[in-house]
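=== RUN LOG ===
request id: a7f3
mode: sequence -> structure
chains: 1
length: 411
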Amino acid sequence: MPEDARARKRTGTGLGLLLALVLGAVLLTALPDHHGREGGGCAPHKVSSWSADKPLTGEFARYGDDATRTDDWTGGDGTHSVRLPDGRVLWLFSDTYLGRVHGPPNPVGESYAWRDRTAPLVRNSAVVMDGSNRLRTTLPTPLFPDPAPDQWRWPVAARVEPRSPGSSEKVVRVLLWVRTAGQSPWIYGVPTATEVATLSLPDLRVESVVKVLDQSLVQDPSRRVLFGTTLVEKDGWTYVFGGDDGQAASRPASSAYVARVPRGRLGEPSAWRYRSGSRWGLEPRPLRGAKVGSAFSVVRVDGTYVLFTMASGPAALTTVTSYWSCSPAGPWHGPAKGFSPSLPTAGVAAYNPQAHPAVSNSASGAGGGDGRLVLSYDVNWLATTGASASINANVTLYRPRFVTVRLTRAG
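=== RESULT ===
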């Protein structure tokens, strides 16, 4: 089994997003998009500095360790966020532990907070943060119920948008990945479909779930595309990025894809158009030469699109790198020099780097006009057996960590 696949193999739990898709990514060059260029505002960008965001990392540790409730979040991965109109931030997670956290030492005498082995595991969750960056509550779990037996939903990127184009009423749209239980190499489930859930505001009630792209009839599971790892808005369009499961099939890397949807219409399958060669059409096609994992993140900074992913090669389990482009469809350039954020202990991996504009204007002074941005990365145990027990014995192994990076023009 490739090193990146071993990093997230589980025995019976199938925890979280696909490390096999987020590690060892290689981004090359995509076909130019002559209709989406940014003109003179676009320039090479790189991460010029970074620092650990201890307050935000510590807030998730505080909330997860709070033992006053047994039905709230104590750990999870697949970290995404969206700021709500009233100033709150909705945090979305894939596989999530609930239950009670016990203080150290753990049962074998180590100095870690721990859960017992009966801690509930749910396929997704959502946690609400107030306007002061304090986590307050976990919504009833799972927020998005399983669509069918042996299937589950993992939430990914989300946006607040008009209920319909031109409407003054706002809703939250959440992209969902549907996966179906499968055999090796599909130890994290077979990719099945992309859905969009609509949540009401301000109560965050799930109103509907719509399937926007069914991939169940694509014969080769490694060619099935799931969208929503990241979203970028520009000129009335929402650009939705995705990837396939090429690495699960032992291909050197997965392929990247992008779709675009008019603002306010994410929940309408007929409004989606997919990049196909030099055009936007009804069938998704790989961005030519763009080889990434499915769980990367893209932001737009001063007219430039910047993509964050794990580095390729020996640094795949430890190093975050970046690429830049003048268009959502490329061509992408890089990689730039990466950085290696801290890990809680030996024998764990960093994965799923995600940008969080929702907190970049408030956490650790990030945001504003100085190019600062908050990124999260998930951490998990590398062991191929007994991983679930190891995560319960040390709760820091399955929680997001945060850094603040500064993006500047390169050269």
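=== NOTES ===
Residues 1-38, 362-368 have pLDDT under 50 and may be disordered.
DSSP finds five helices and 26 strands in the chain.
=== END ===
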